[in-house]
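To whoever is covering the structure queue this week,

Two jobs came back overnight. Logging them here so there's a record in the thread.

Job A:
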Amino acid sequence: MSFQPYSRIPSGIVYFGTPSSDSLYESDSNFTIGGGYLSASNIKLQNNGTLGSNGTPNAITIASDGDVSIYGNLTVNGTTTTVNSTTVLVEDPIILLGSGSPSTDDNKDRGISFNYYDGTAQKGFFGYDDSISKFIFVTGASIVNEVVSGTKGIIVADIDGSAASLTNGRYIQVSNQISGSGMFDGSSDLNISVALTADAITDQTEATVAYDDHYFLVASGTSLRKISKSNFAMSNFTITDGTTSQQIDNGEGIYFIDSDTIDFTVAATNFVSGVVKNNSITESKRSRTVETVTSSKTIDKDITLADCTSGNLTLSLPENDTAGKIVVVKRIDSSANNVIISRTGSDTIDGSTEFRLYHIYETLTVVSNGANWYII
């Protein structure tokens, strides 16, 4: 069965029926088929309609909300591709920049550039710098012919892994009240041995009064410890010579071997100092040294008993002895020999170079003023 067309428009599509009663096929001068292609100003598909090829009829699907799905690979050829999306999701974990297999160095950088605002519109970049063969991050970037320049940015991150040595090592030195130094280049840990300098003491303000909130520093092995004023209060303490020890309790006195009693009491809760007064030193407490000599020597005792029975005996006084030092020489034999008391060096004895004892029990007492001897 065949139908006679109602009308035929050479530039459009042949349709059947009247335009007002049957619009199954409309005729439009903007829609043409010819030369192997379809031309139209606006083509509409039904919701979730598809466009495709014989092999893939659903290559492009357009949903009712305008979402477009492409089945297969998408290749965009052109100079600039602009994506005005709020969010871009890329499933591929690795993005390839600079396609193909380069065979020559094009001297161009690779990376990602971004726009930001810092008082003025700025551009940033992070990626690979071809000229130095290193990964960089710059701010205030200028990109000309895919070559990036700008200010080095600051990266805030934790760095994990083994690092090679720094290109330029850095000398680290501590100063002020401690001293120490070392070179750090990143190849290994740096340990700096430090020591207190004189400034730790000399530059401090001296305290004239000790308060309860003050601290004292004491050495404990290789460490420093602090002690408060209250730590010095104690009920007792112990003194020792390394072999035997004695505990000193509150109110007890300290005595020193081979010496007189010190006339003060050490209270265990206080540190008390005392000075021995002149009137506490009496003759009965003095201990003088005495010796008997039969041959010549330099006098080194307080009292020398001279016996010249075997021949003349020369006793030399010490040169430049302590001022106030008193020396006594007494002859104890009755021989015809002499006891000669002589100076040493340039010292004189009442202006003379020597003094003689001729008779038994004869005595000479002299005192030094630090330069000469005088008979008293």
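Job B:
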Amino acid sequence: MTIRRIVSLALGLAAIGGAELTARYLGFGDPPLVILDEKIEYYLAPSRSYSRFGHEIRVNRYGMRSDDYDAAVADRRINFSLLGDSAVYGTRLNQTNTLSAELQRTLVAKHKDQRVLVNNISASSWGPENLLEFYRRFGPFRGSAAWVVQSTHDMTDVIDLVGNTVPYRTATPYCALHDLAISIWRWFSGFRPHNNVESIGYEDKRHRADKALDALIMTLKRDYAHVTLVFHATREEAISGKAAGLDHYRTVAKEHGIYFLSTIDLYTRAYRNGHLPHYDNIHLSYEGVRILSAQLAADSRPVDHGD
């Protein structure tokens, strides 16, 4: 082998090594993993810890992004649960800045009890069916109060195993560059036109989502002293003051005789006061987390159902 080839090889290896280190510095290489499931669709791999884009992610024994505990011996008087999708999971947020962690700190201060626990029962892109099947599999998680956080898009969010891409990794990438390549491929795939016809129609989605949400609420009412259905407004809905899901979820709460909380006015006031509760159209910023957690902590009485 000539000196030129050796130098070229060394430079190539150095370039690959530099690219790998750069990708790791940016946060690639340690993505949260999920387990595929024919009923739940997917859920976070239990008992794992990750560092992703500078954010700590810790998953307990049940697949929740929250503190670990034993549900069999938990004191239900100081046990709370938040159920939802990526807004509850805390996309782009550190573990300590998620809605469940912030609410837990608020409730610890309110109840003067360091043992207070808020379960984060969520994953990105989960709908009512995912939540119901997860709770049936790993629950019950009995407690004092449970908040089910739903957005307008959850009205048609159902499990569809045909052609859907899971918003997580199912296996650890070989290296940070491999992880980066997967992320780039998925990003570009989102812009490509898809010719496949949806396997589930709109009306079927509405029916299935409502049926699952009804079953979930009835299950939670048996396991918690208080259940609240929370409508999580998007940025567009908060700014416009109009939300297709608002009346729907208010009606669902009224039919089940549970508390209802809308965030649309809460977020609207925040924007008017110069605060930014969202970092994109749907996900909460840490400012939004603090605003909503304070409201949830005060949620200890029935609220107006719009009667």
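Note for Job B: Residues 300-307 have pLDDT under 50 and may be disordered.

Please reply-all if you pick these up so we don't duplicate work.
Q.
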